[in-house]
Design goal:
Helix content is about 45%, strand content about 5%. By secondary structure, it is mainly alpha-helical. The strands form two sheets. The protein has a two-stranded antiparallel ribbon. A two-stranded antiparallel ribbon has the order 3-4. Strand 3 and strand 4 form a beta hairpin.
């Protein structure tokens, strides 16, 4: 049965007229009576066998003519959208296309192409501001999180963008997919240079930041999907921030891989319980979901005691590019409480003690000494400070913190020994040897290092107006 037939199978006969104003959902429950009293061991019965009763429940939910037209049209034009929507909690709560997509008269992103088909103004972009009409707390929490500001963050700290070391297509197909784009509207049409995009830090035409469908993919908006590590792994993977791979190596990841198919991923918000619905945490459990007395949050900046992705590890409120308005001691207590749902106080305290020591080890024995060496070269004009990442030593310093430095810290934080050592501290030792060798050669020669013409390094260096 095709999608349209699935939704409108009651169109014929007496239901034809009703369907023009109402959406019928027929749910049939078959209750099977366990025939224990009719076992073969019993004496022969003279009356007919009792058949399971059939009970039928009919729920009629009225929807507007406009919303009904949306469903009918898209069931033909884009049946996958309607199929996803029909399986969502939105559909079960009678939330239709128009509740999310209907645009106001002052909105800049009204689709002119759609107006040529029907008179109802709609926008393809559903922003956190739109979602906040029903989910105000979640939208507000996300708005103050690091996720919502991740596009702004890379423009503040990343030399690839600031120095134009990559070009537009490399940014569009790479950076902007996760960090988000600044969506622009030209003559009622979304600028193709900024769309499609569901980056978690996307800046929308209404000024809101983010895309809820980064984690809750439209049009099903599945809780189960957002709770699984594969969703986070869309962005958090690879040589620079391999949290997905780190989780997979950890004991938590091994248990998830072995047993995760049996867990209750669809528990209602606020009720997902360790030991009941799942056995071991995923990314969302530690960073977002509620457990014990800790409430759930859409602010992933909470529960962090260190900014482990920064060049030099600092407390979140000390991160100059985007200082968090949190107290790290309080947030550490929250994270410890999440751990205590499954672990003993001694185990929990021991883990965080080792993690803190790993952070200090990275800061004091790797990043700070190498930073001092390269700073000396800049002072002596042996390294050019006109642009970053156009000299070999600059690339090595960048990868020291951005690649193996992060892997060492993330591995220690998430109990993945291979990433903490072989992909982390071991690689840091090798990187430091390479850096020290280059520094010594430049100091001995007294000649500036070779400046390369980096391929496709013609990106725009004008910082966007993030406060517009």
């Amino acid at each position: 049965m095709n999608v349209k037939a699935n939704y409108f199978h009651l169109r014929k006969g007496k239901c034809m007229k009703t369907l023009k104003s109402s959406l019928f959902i027929v749910i049939v429950f078959i209750f099977v009576v366990v025939p224990g009293v009719f076992s073969a061991a019993q004496t022969e019965q003279t009356s007919p066998a009792i058949q399971p009763s059939l009970k039928e429940y009919r729920i009629v939910r009225s929807v507007s003519e406009e919303a009904h037209a949306c469903i009918e049209c898209h069931a033909e034009e884009s049946e996958g959208i309607v199929a996803d929507w029909s399986a969502s909690r939105h559909a079960h709560a009678n939330i239709t296309c128009l509740d999310c997509h209907k645009a106001g008269p002052a909105d800049s992103d009204i689709s002119k192409a759609h107006l040529k088909i029907v008179m109802t103004p709609v926008s393809a972009i559903v922003s956190p501001k739109d979602c906040s009409r029903c989910h105000p707390a979640e939208a507000a929490q996300h708005a103050q999180s690091k996720h919502a500001h991740t596009l702004e963050l890379i423009w503040k700290i990343d030399p690839w963008l600031n120095d134009g070391m990559n070009n537009n297509i490399e940014r569009q197909t790479g950076c902007h997919h996760c960090h988000g784009s600044i969506v622009k509207i030209q003559d009622g049409t979304i600028d193709a240079d900024t769309w499609p995009n569901v980056g978690v830090g996307r800046i929308n035409p209404d000024g809101s930041r983010g895309s809820c469908s980064s984690c809750h993919t439209r049009h099903k908006f599945s809780l189960a999907e957002a709770r699984k590590p594969e969703t986070c792994g869309q962005c958090h993977l690879g040589p620079d921030h391999p949290q997905a791979e780190v989780f997979a190596e950890s004991k938590h990841g091994a248990i998830y891989e072995a047993e995760g198919d049996e867990w209750n991923w669809n528990a209602a918000p606020g009720t997902w319980t360790p030991g009941v619905d799942y056995r071991t945490p995923t990314c969302s459990v530690c960073h977002m979901s509620g457990a014990k007395q800790i409430a759930g949050t859409h602010d992933v900046t909470e529960r962090l005691a260190w900014e482990t992705q920064a060049p030099l590890t600092v407390r979140p409120n000390e991160f100059a590019a985007w200082p968090a308005h949190t107290n790290w001691q309080e947030e550490r207590k929250k994270m410890e409480t999440i751990c205590l749902a499954c672990h003993s106080p001694a185990w929990t305290q021991g883990h965080f003690t080792l993690f803190d020591e790993a952070v200090v080890n990275y800061n004091d024995n790797y990043y700070k000494p190498m930073k001092r060496l390269t700073d000396e070269l800049y002072e002596k004009k042996l390294l050019s400070n006109e642009k970053n990442l156009d000299e070999r030593l600059e690339i090595d310093m960048y990868e020291l913190w951005h690649h193996e430095g992060r892997r060492a810290r993330f591995g220690a934080a998430m109990m993945a020994p291979d990433y903490a050592w072989w992909h982390g501290f071991y690689e840091l030792k090798k990187r430091c040897m390479v850096i020290e060798e280059q520094v010594e050669a430049l100091l001995q020669s007294g000649k500036p290092g070779n400046v390369f013409k980096v391929k496709s390094s013609d990106g725009n260096t004008i910082k966007p107006d993030f406060d517009r």
